[in-house]
Fold Elongation factor 4.
Amino acid sequence: MDRSRIRNFSIIAHIDHGKSTLADRLLETTGALTDREKTNQFLDKLDLERERGITIKAQAVRLKYRADDGKDYILNLIDTPGHVDFSYEVSRSLAACEGGLLVVDASQGVEAQTLANVYLAIDQNLEVFPVLNKIDLPGAEPARIKEEIEEIIGLDASDAVEASAKEGIGIHEILEAIVAKVPAPAGDADAPLKALIFDSWYDSYQGVIMLVRIFDGTLKKGEKIHLMASGRSYEVLKIGAFTPHPVEMPEMAAGEVGFIIAGIKVLQDAKVGDTITHLNRCADKPLAGFQEVKPMVYSGLYPIDSGDYDALRDAMEKLRLNDASFSFEPENSLALGFGFRCGFLGLLHMEIIQERLEREFNMELITTAPTVRYRVITTKGEELVVDSANKLPDVQYIDRILEPFILASVHVPNDYVGGVLALCEEKRGIQREIKYLTSNRVMVIYELPLNEIVLDFYDRLKTVSRGYASLDYEFLDYRPSDLVRLNIMVNGEVVDALSLIVHRDKSQLRGRELVSKMKEFIPRQQYEVAVQAAIGNKVVARANVKALRKDVTAKCYGGDITRKRKLLEKQKEGKKRMKQVGNVELPQEAFLAILKVK
Ligand code: GTP
């Protein structure tokens, strides 16, 4: 394969600006799809496609294109996931490319959420060029949007292609621009092998499938490979590319993109970002940028019906097969019974897993408020890792507690900078830098404690910037901090699932807010219920949920027995989504009350 004829690129776009439609057009125009496949969006099928016993994830598609210069080119379209929790995966996918197509809806303009990925691409020295999509719409304003791209992002948009993925306008020009603007890959096909894993997944027939970009060297079927970060060695069983149909190839050389199957049984052995080299001719050092992805956010997941415990564990095991960054271990709570403590990359990842458990596996769950991992040094000098308030030792045994800090970069238009700064200060942030990127675009950089981010930072950021701020963050370090355990008591009993680790300066306020929120969520019972917040033995806030005055059945006039029964039935239904704690019933909302306070 002649490297000068390869182009590796990705499409960067905001949701709904037409990425999938455009990708399908590119496939169609280059003859990659059959007539039947043209009718439905091929690349948008999240349901994993099964064909010839292999799962296709259209994360990297190889297209053949004869350009106007009469030469044949191979265009590798590499897709990227689109959220801050997955920014590491995005960065690895972008690292496999030399160029990026920035697709902007010509009737909408640049959207904040696109920016984080554009900057990731620019930081990695990708050649990024804009395409204005949806010019068929009456509201399209290509001239204004070009100005906006230059103003906000600082990219030259003077010769941006004007296209309509829907109508098939400008597709030829886009393909020509890819050939002309995206640099051909560099690399040495004779050097020791260096291949980047930018995606991997588990297939029940083939084992783990890895998508790779070869930077140096040549890999042939049957050769022995070594994965430098995981330290494992395997034999290559299959090499190929998705066109989008899987096509096997005898070898793959520097500059090329494709899949490798090597009989790997667990996803954890084929980590995104790892470097593949030859076992007997090892590269001297791996490609830069590998990170061990570690869960950042933890929460408890409990079945509402304790009989579902085994089913929940089975469901979680299935999810973990294909998600190396999700972890769980058994945990039990006095209030909630047997369940699991789960680790996630971030809040969105947590929501995705919860939703999949509920939808795909029909689990009814109670989840506890998210927390981060603390490091606790005991008075005996031991170090403990604590991912839940209940694992925090009593105060007299604690020497100090360290909490994780992150470096947050917020891109925001000028007008909203004030709001963003106030929010970061409120969240115990330490200002690092404020950079003016263009006359209207600012980058605010703060060091922030992660525990302040996991609760509601992202939502608040969107509110103070009217949706225009984008957030990107990376882990920094652990720092000593004055943290305490805040307990919530219901009728004098500590509800362990509600305990929190908070900064001392905020504990009073948090306690008061929590107690008043809890009061709203706890339904009235036959007797008065006292809700208290306490640090150690000291009660910092209290509220009472008044007793029910009237008998519930009193509403039923005339003593109609069937009506009375119905009402009692209904009450029983309602109880299913409650957990009995001591003599009080608590609804799910009460366990997440912390997410509702500011
Ligand atoms: P996600 O898959 O949600 O990330 O969105 P996407 O960016 O892939 O957008 P998608 O291709 O699904 O397009 C979003 C909507 O815009 C769909 O209803 C498309 O039919 C429509 N659309 C895409 N391209 C064009 C275009 O050129 N003109 C018009 N009028 N509509 C378009």
